[in-house]
């Protein structure tokens, strides 16, 4: 199987146009210490699989990496319409940055209580919980992440974001990866919108993710237009590996 490795602000993925099985997703992610595998089912249609082999509805950074891969294949368009399980998303290049337009968030639940924390829930393509803390570095996400990710308030699971509202630093524990990742695009969007809601921060908001990179989130006051912009780069040349497990249906 041929694939390329990409990083979207620290979120890392293998991109391939060859079907791959859940077992081999896990093997590939373990081999390269990456967060997931993107299967280009068609030129403009992608599926994304988490490190544990489960399929995600969408991934903002993964989508930006997918578009960067199209550009590097000399597939140039002013606007790219990319199909995902969460619908069709429009993306484009802005210099060396990749932008993606996201749909309005859904399933707002503000000021939920999981003692000793208060948190906020919104779905920005995938479900996210946002907790505001004084220092993201002092949070043990290996303990806090699973306790919220599997909480009964979220029967389908949730990604967990801790956010410093002063420095705009954030960290994310991702469902499906079952660990902290260096970045999460939809998590950055959820965090920025929660900051706007709770603290009145205006657009754009620049979120600093664990990798130290920044994702810029722009939005209209009614949240009907949301744009995420950030870096996406190939981190390793194409590789070939042999697998024998049957691919996804």
Termini gap: 17 Å
Average pLDDT over all residues: 93
Oligomerization: single chain
Q: What is the number of strand segments?
A: 18
State the CATH superfamily name of the largest domain. Answer: Diaminopimelate Epimerase, Chain A, domain 1
Could you name the ranges where pLDDT drops below 50 across 5 or more consecutive residues?
none
Helix content: 10-25%
Q: Give me the CATH architecture of the largest domain, please.
A: Roll
Query: What's the CATH topology label of the largest domain?
Result: Diaminopimelate Epimerase, Chain A, domain 1
- Structure class: alpha+beta
DSSP helical segment count: 4
Q: Order of strands across the biggest sheet?
A: 5-4-3-2-1-18
Taking the sheet with the most strands, its summary is:
6 strands, mixed
CA-atom Rg in angstroms: 17 Å
Number of domains: 2
Write down the secondary-structure element order.
EEHEEEHEEEEEEHEEEHEEEE
User: What coarse outline follows from CA principal-axis ratios?
Assistant: globular
CATH class of the largest domain: Alpha Beta
User: How large is the share of residues in beta strands?
Assistant: 35-45%
